[in-house]
Amino acid sequence: MDHMNDPYDLREGVPSVDVFRRLRTDAGLSDHDPEAVAPALTGTWYGVVLCFEDEPIGMGRIVGDGGTAFQIVDICVHPAHQGKGLGRRIMAALTEELERRAPATAYVSLIADGPARFLYEKFGFADTAEHGSIGMYRFMRGG
Asked: Could you tell me which of 135, 104, 139, 142 has the C-alpha nearest to residue 117?
């Protein structure tokens, strides 16, 4: 790709709360309450925002303890821009930062939705079941 005329710009950092929520919902991901998003963004270990002509259209984040455990979260690209290798660019930036700063023994996890698993496999991620583990989750509900 000719990066001189590339309309996409990958920037380090996290979006605002409103942009974060819009990026997730535009991509078909669940929304989150603003009161939950603000501290989540502050707790980001590393993040990137993908812009098209200065408009945020994608993002990805890494959260974790900075030493032993990291999780890649919030990978998304607006549907109008999908199929152009942009998710791969986001993942490349995140994994490069992990390789640069995370300890070699760190455990890096993510949740792969649907066909996204094929993208993540290209970056060395494997199904945890292959190692005798299963992913588990719990949503916290108030009241």
From this structure: 135
